[in-house]
Amino acid sequence: MRKTATLTTSLLAAALLATGCGSEKKDDSPAKASEASARTSASSEAKGSSSRKKSVPHQVVFEVRGTGATQVMWNGNGNHFEQVKLPWTKTETVQLEGAELKVGVTVSVVPGSVTGPDGMLKPAPCTIKVDGKQVADNQDGKSPKPCEYKLKD
Question: If 0-12 CB within 10 Å is exposed, 13-18 middle and 19+ buried, where does residue 107 land?
């Protein structure tokens, strides 16, 4: 019973605070209302424009080398997966927005398998270039890891 009374009192106090009850004098004149509305609108526009900031566009080039055909999955402006003929190159323009400006975005390419000189399957060699500079590779297919890079401004 005591817990119920405490909870009820707490809820009533919170409701009073939320409704803004107080001794504040209200001025309901149309001029004051339009000024307040204009300030709120301008403030919202300023906040909205800052959340829509964009970075400089980056040219990202995904490459998978080898001969024959394989499956390739890459992540740039979205996730993609397709059967390709090697050698394969895909170029995308990536522009960071919003939270990506702070935390970055991972671009990656996961090559399928190709037949190595010894007849064994191995990952196809892959590279990623950002703005003309190579930023990732899988050591000519010697590493089983995909090629990936954290793109940040």
Answer: buried
Scanning the structure block, which residue is given the tokens 């702070």? Answer: 102
Contact 58, 95 (CB under 8 A): yes
Residue 54 has a pLDDT of 76
pLDDT in tens, 82-103: 999 999 999 999 999 999 999 9
Distance CA 151, CA 153 (A): 7
Phi-psi region for residue 59, left (φ > 0), alpha (ψ -120 to 50) or beta? beta
Q: Which of 87, 38, 82, 49 is nearest to 66 (CA)?
A: 87
2: left (phi over 0), alpha (psi -120 to 50) or beta: alpha
Task: Report how far residue 126's alpha carbon sits from residue 146's, in angstroms, rounded to the nearest whole number.
Answer: 8
CA separation, residue 49 to residues 36, 39, 52, 128, 144 (Å): 20, 15, 5, 32, 43
**What's the mean pLDDT in 56-82?**
95
